Amino acid sequence: MGNGMNKSLFYQRTRISVPSRVPEVIWLVVCAISSPVVSASLFTCGLHRRLSGHSREPGRHSPCCKILPGLYIGNFKDARDAEQLSKNKVTHILSVHDSARPMLEGVKYLCIPAADSPSQNLTRHFKESIKFIHECRLRGEGCLVHCLAGVSRSVTLVIAYIMTVTDFGWEDALHTVRAGRSCANPNLGFQRQLQDFEKHEVHQYRQWLKEEYGESPLRDAEEARNILGKYKEQGRVESQPGARRWSSFQAVPPLAFSNYMTET
């Protein structure tokens, strides 16, 4: 198993500041143009928040979502919301999108330039991402993982992390994420990569994490089981984990694992 390091990763305390804010209407247009699937997922996520009573304040977008203690998933705007980051004690930001770069002062960044494309290889970034998230949480600090919409790329990295710190397979890890962020929907290529990770690598990653950091004080396995149990009690588990991504479109559903072809 490789060390997951790549020159495209940017990992430092940054002093770069971007004072300007992206108007929400522009951000929504960008999301819709980038992917109609992402746009529909964002609508689903927003609708769920309103039905759950988590309506936003006037002039504010929906907040980032807590997945585990000290671990959050959000979108591009969340990553620039200093007030929200401070409230959640976020000191580390893992940014994964096409133009990922540091944006705020006093925050430790891991930046991974990556497209929301089925052909994008995210597996090679799993180890560095897991290390980044875990070290932050062991310090008792908060880590935000975000992409453009907080739907696919960021969710994939968080699923890989949850699989590593628990005994969950990728489906249970996905449901654990969806319990906190209903719009979580990795694209088909990322689903396949997570299946491959479960089948071939996750056991090695768990052993590596234990050897590197010792027994974890975080009790993630117990926390995740409780979250998943409540999620299942609410009847929110789909027969096909990726089905929701396609529910609003005339398109084929996710393929079975055996139907995915290995890239050459």
From TrEMBL:
Gene3D superfamilies: Protein tyrosine phosphatase superfamily (3.90.190.10). Keywords: Cytoplasm, Hydrolase, Protein phosphatase. It catalyses: O-phospho-L-seryl-[protein] + H2O = L-seryl-[protein] + phosphate; O-phospho-L-threonyl-[protein] + H2O = L-threonyl-[protein] + phosphate; O-phospho-L-tyrosyl-[protein] + H2O = L-tyrosyl-[protein] + phosphate. One of its GO terms (molecular function) is protein tyrosine phosphatase activity. Residues 62-203 form the Tyrosine-protein phosphatase domain. The keyword Cytoplasm applies. One of its GO terms (biological process) is signal transduction. One of its GO terms (cellular component) is cytoplasm. Its EC number is 3.1.3.16, 3.1.3.48. Pfam families: DSPc. The keyword Glycoprotein does not apply. Residues 124-181 form the Tyrosine specific protein phosphatases domain. It is found in: Cytoplasm. Dual specificity phosphatase; can dephosphorylate both phosphotyrosine and phosphoserine or phosphothreonine residues. Activates the JNK signaling pathway. Inhibits T-cell receptor signaling and T-cell mediated immune responses, acting, at least in part, by inducing degradation of E3 ubiquitin ligase UBR2. Dephosphorylates and thereby induces 'Lys-48'-linked ubiquitination of UBR2, leading to proteasomal degradation of UBR2. Dephosphorylates and thereby inactivates tyrosine kinase LCK. Inhibits UBR2-mediated 'Lys-63'-linked ubiquitination of LCK. Monomer. Interacts with LCK; the interaction is direct. Interacts with UBR2; the interaction is direct. Belongs to the protein-tyrosine phosphatase family. Non-receptor class dual specificity subfamily. This is JNK pathway associated phosphatase. The lineage of its organism: Eukaryota, Metazoa, Chordata, Craniata, Vertebrata.
